[in-house]
Design goal:
Blueprint lengths: L2 H4 L2 H16 L1 H20 L4 H27 L2 H17 L2 H5 L3 E8 L3 E9 L2 E5 L9 E2 L4 E2 L8 H13 L1
Antiparallel strand pairs: 1-2, 2-3, 4-5
């Protein structure tokens, strides 16, 4: 199975967006990297103590690399997807433990259906097949026996999406 097929659709979208942002801005990113290299060379040529030179050079390289990564991240424009990807990984960790595997449960992540979207997680085991929809939000949701209540201004409908995912799997 190719790496692209193993990645969930959210992960694939983030990776592709970052690649495109880096390609679109390669001249600017290269110029910045050259600028960092010039600063390091100037630091090493300065008559400072050797330990100070290497410390400052390492700090400049670290800040430069971090700045390039941040620039690519921001240029990609998918910060919300990165947070969603993080939430999906947390969900994977919650349902992929040894306890579940020993009892016959298996987890499929990022099941993509062409022209129909994706299902974040599919849990398959002795108790059936379950569609799990992962959401990231900075607002608390209230879980009651009757419903999943989200803040009034929140447009996410995780329950509806999970039900649609179950229909996709059923088909």
């Amino acid at each position: 199975m190719s790496k692209a097929l193993r990645l969930g659709s959210n992960e694939r979208i983030v990776r592709d967006a970052r690649t495109e942002a880096a390609k679109a801005n390669w001249k600017l990113l290269s110029a910045f990297a050259i600028g960092v290299a010039v600063v390091v060379v100037l630091l090493l040529a300065d008559p400072l103590p050797v330990q100070v030179k290497w410390f400052l050079s390492g700090a400049v390289c670290t800040v430069g690399a971090g700045t390039i990564c941040l620039a690519v991240h921001l240029a990609a424009g998918h910060h919300h997807r990165v947070l969603g990807r993080h939430a999906e990984r947390l969900t994977q960790q919650a349902v992929r433990g040894r306890w579940h595997r020993l009892r016959g449960w298996r987890l499929v992540n990022g099941l993509f259906f062409q022209n129909l979207g994706d299902v974040d997680h599919v849990l398959v085991g002795p108790g059936g097949v379950y569609s799990i929809e992962t959401k990231w939000t900075s607002e608390p949701w209230e879980v009651t026996p009757a419903a999943l209540r989200r803040p009034a201004h929140d447009t996410l409908d995780a329950v509806r999406q999970a039900k649609e995912g179950a229909k996709k799997i059923d088909l």
